[in-house]
Amino acid sequence: MSTSSQISSEDDSKSAPPAGEALKGYQRKYLRAMAHALKPVLLIGQRGVTPTVTQELAQALDRHELVKIKFIECKVKGDKQRMAEELKDAASAHLIGMVGHTAIFFRSNPDPEKRKILPPQRPTANSEQEPISA
Fold first, then answer.
1. Domain assignments of the chain as residue spans, ordered by start
2. How many H-runs (helices) and E-runs (strands) does the chain carry?
3. pLDDT digits (tens, 9 = 90+) for 93-132
4. How far is C-alpha 61 from the chain's CA centre?
């Protein structure tokens, strides 16, 4: 086995969980911090979630992995939450959070070589740690 294939298999084990599994709180916090400087790439208007909007979100996630969207016509929090959940399911992405009229989505690129963002991984309890001596 070559070194490059060993590295890629190690990277695969440290990737973000699939959209069906929830991200941990520290991973969501990390992604929210990364998204702070981003500008919304998709604006949701009065028509709400349409097939075109879901297609554009999927394309934006393929390109950027972490995107912000902004609801410009919807003022009711429940409606925004419902639309964000709808988009999350349609794009097979993680809904990182919502602040005001802005929602943050994340989806890892399926190709490990094209991944730009890897959420942090904490060591598991099974990993070897040195005992603390007093």
1. 21-106
2. 4, 4
3. 999 999 999 999 999 988 888 888 888 888 776 655 555 6
4. 8
